[in-house]
Design brief:
By secondary structure, the protein is α/β, with parallel strands linked by helices. The protein folds into two domains: about 5-75 and about 100-210, P-loop containing nucleotide triphosphate hydrolases (Rossmann fold, 3-Layer(aba) Sandwich), CATH 3.40.50.300; about 220-315, Helicase, Ruva Protein, domain 3, CATH 1.10.8.80. It is built from 14 helices and eleven strands. The protein has a five-stranded parallel beta sheet with strand order 2-5-8-1-9. A two-stranded antiparallel ribbon has the order 3-4. Strands 6-7 form a two-stranded antiparallel sheet. Helix 1 crosses helix 3, helix 2 packs across helix 11 (about 250-265) and helix 11 (about 250-265) packs across helix 12. The radius of gyration is 20 Å and the shape is globular. The mean pLDDT is about 85. InterPro entries: AAA+_ATPase, ATPase_AAA-3, CbbQ/NirQ/NorQ/GpvN, ChlI/MoxR_AAA_lid, P-loop_NTPase. This is Magnesium chelatase. Belongs to the MoxR family. It comes from Sphingobium cupriresistens LL01.
């Protein structure tokens, strides 16, 4: 596959998702980057901003199997990964696979379940395998998690541990639509009374697992010159020398940023990475990996502002 084909594939996927979802272009762009760089994405936004519909439409346009888990306080790890259950008719144990055995998994309201259950996703997100009773079971090579959480509610939620957050390539803030977009939503979606599905809005698959694998292989060949590598390194190391931050980004964050920049370059029709690719992706990649110092929290500083300051301070190569 050539880089122009990757760009065309990305545009086709965006057009199909746009049949069901009004606006949210930046969110869909980040999901495409995550897909082609083998990452996962966390969507944070208030209820009713189409987070679930985006994930479902995205999976349908890709031609991937879609699974959804509604996280609740009483959800157990076995409810996600599955278990070996005893069959009284055969007097043998048989494996019952959980909903995690899919290609694109929507982890809806992931912060509503305790850390013990959240941790059931750790191995799957990092290694694309699941271990049940000592047996390692492989997930699809295309396995991707799209998780959502509501930033408004504070009762009955369990903040994601840092180890869990670090598994997500991006954390994207899903904002309310503009006035024009909201009017279009009310005019079109308000006329429907049945459950909104991608099929109902005419979304059709424009890719499949094999086509996506070809695109990922092409993305892995995108050139990353030494100057851009040094720039990524400077950004990551720069997060560890800021007084407003108690904890900076890990080396894994730098490796993920390089892979994501390659995917963005290919989606933009280039076979080489430029500093603007890194700049555009750095906020979404760093915002959930940095921890503010107590003094910065008291002063009302935001991680977003600190990240912007770091990007503005470090000179990009020309």
């Amino acid at each position: 596959m050539r880089v122009e084909e990757v760009q065309a594939l990305g545009q086709a996927i965006k057009q199909e998702v746009a049949r069901a979802v009004v606006g949210q272009e930046s969110t869909i762009d980040l999901m495409l980057v995550a897909l082609f760089s083998g990452g996962h994405i966390l969507l944070e936004g208030p209820p009713g901003t189409a987070k679930t519909l985006i994930a479902h439409s995205f999976a349908h346009a890709l031609g991937l199997d879609f699974g959804r888990i509604q996280f609740t306080p009483d959800l157990m790890p076995g409810d996600i990964i599955g278990a070996n259950l005893f069959n009284f008719q055969t007097s043998q144990f048989s494996l019952t696979r959980g909903p995690i055995f899919t290609e694109l998994l929507l982890a809806d309201e992931i912060n509503r379940t305790p850390p013990k259950t959240q941790a059931a996703l750790l191995e799957a997100m990092q290694e694309r395998t699941v271990t049940i009773d000592g047996e390692s079971l492989a997930l699809s090579d295309r396995f991707m998690v799209v998780a959502t959480q509501n930033p408004i509610e504070q009762q009955g939620v369990y903040p994601l541990p840092e180890a869990q957050l670090d598994r997500f390539l991006f954390k994207q803030s899903v904002d309310y639509p503009s006035a024009a977009e909201e009017r279009k939503i009310v005019a079109t979606h308000g006329a429907r009374t049945h459950a909104m599905t991608p099929q109902a809005w005419g979304v059709v698959p424009v890719a499949d697992a094999a086509r996506i694998a070809e695109a990922i292989a092409m993305v892995n060949g995108v050139r990353l010159v030494d100057e851009v590598i040094d720039y990524i390194l400077a950004l990551i190391r720069g997060t560890r020398d800021v007084a407003d931050l108690e904890s900076g980004a890990s080396p894994r964050a730098g490796a993920m940023l390089a892979g994501a920049a390659r995917a963005r370059a290919a989606l933009d029709g280039r076979d080489f990475v430029i500093p603007d690719d890194v700049k555009a992706l750095a906020p979404a990649l760093l915002r959930h990996r940095l921890i503010l110092s107590p003094a910065a929290e008291i002063d009302g500083r935001r991680v977003e502002d600190v990240v912007t300051g770091i990007i503005d301070t470090i000179e990009a190569p020309r």
